[in-house]
Design goal:
Layout (H helix, E strand, L loop, with lengths): L19 H10 L8 H10 L18 H14 L5 E16 L18 E14 L4 E7 L4 H14 L5 E5 L8 H9 L3 E5 L10 H13 L7 H16 L16 H6 L5
Parallel strand pairs: 1-4, 4-5
Antiparallel strand pairs: 1-2, 2-3
Helix pairs in contact: 1-2, 4-5
């Protein structure tokens, strides 16, 4: 187990991670008092819940204001008055318009859907997306670009959909979200308040959850002959989703929040 947790390069094996076979050969080279077979190495790794072939990615935010921004967004989710809108916005960039060259072979008993590997590219688009946190409704538009002016267009869509009442806009720190044009828009629309998620913390923006759903349900196994077909299927999905939409059951609270503080700030559990 100790050898499995060592970096292979530290013991002269020029690979990035162990396999059961490589680890077996390495253990044999140590001239131990007992022999290891590859099957026994696999069993030991399995019993110890060690999986050298897997890795889990993580990212550390270097934002010096991480906690302040995080708490600001979370208090919007939990504490904003019920008559105020909460809208999460972002861009889903690089949406590929891929056309499969051959049709899929339908699923049959004992056989999943089979898909030809080759495809034809027809360019990319961007979904300028927004999510109504309290209603779970998604809306927005497809665009070829995603600069500051395009973001202003998205803000105009939000303001048009919600012509009355105060509201909160949650977005990340992308440069296009803080241009002079965007700042002018918020100056001209004082009933909307902007809240930035910390850098490298897009998971605090609930529209990212919706982007993941759209990726799985529409894009991952879709085939689109042109941009117009992709746009139609994206809009069709959003309309269909909104017919029975439900808000996400958001429950994240930082460990730094005390139990009493978490209870005081409410929100779904």
């Amino acid at each position: 187990m100790a050898e499995a947790c060592r970096n292979p390069s530290d013991v002269g094996v020029p690979v990035t991670h162990w396999s059961a076979g490589l680890l077996t050969v390495h253990l044999e080279s140590l001239n131990l008092d007992f022999d290891f077979s590859e099957s026994s190495v696999r069993r030991i790794l399995r019993d110890a819940d060690l999986q050298p072939h897997r890795q889990k990615m993580w990212l550390t935010s270097q934002d010096e204001e991480f906690r302040a921004k995080r708490d600001d967004v979370l208090h919007v989710y939990y504490d904003a008055p019920q008559d105020e809108h909460i809208i999460c916005v972002d861009e889903m960039t690089g949406v590929q318009i891929l056309e499969r060259l051959c049709p899929d072979i339908p699923m049959a008993s004992g056989m999943p859907v089979r898909r030809e590997f080759e495809y034809k590219r027809h360019g990319t688009l961007t979904l300028m997306g927004a999510l109504d946190v309290r209603r779970g409704k998604v809306f927005g538009f497809m665009s070829e670009g995603h600069d500051g002016l395009t973001f202003v267009e998205l803000l105009d869509v939000v303001a048009t959909c919600y012509p009355h009442g105060r509201g909160h806009i949650v977005c990340d720190n992308l440069f296009a979200h803080d241009t002079d044009d965007v700042q002018d828009w918020f100056d001209d629309h004082p009933r909307w308040k902007r809240h930035f998620t910390p850098k490298h913390a897009s998971w605090l923006n609930q529209v990212e959850c919706m982007f993941g759903i759209i990726q799985r349900r529409v894009l991952q196994r879709g085939s689109f002959t042109c941009a117009d077909e992709l746009i139609k299927k994206m809009y069709d999905y959003m309309i269909w989703h909104n017919q029975s939409s439900q808000p996400f059951r958001w429950s994240y609270r930082p460990k730094s929040w005390s139990a009493n503080q978490g209870a005081a700030h409410g929100g779904p559990n």
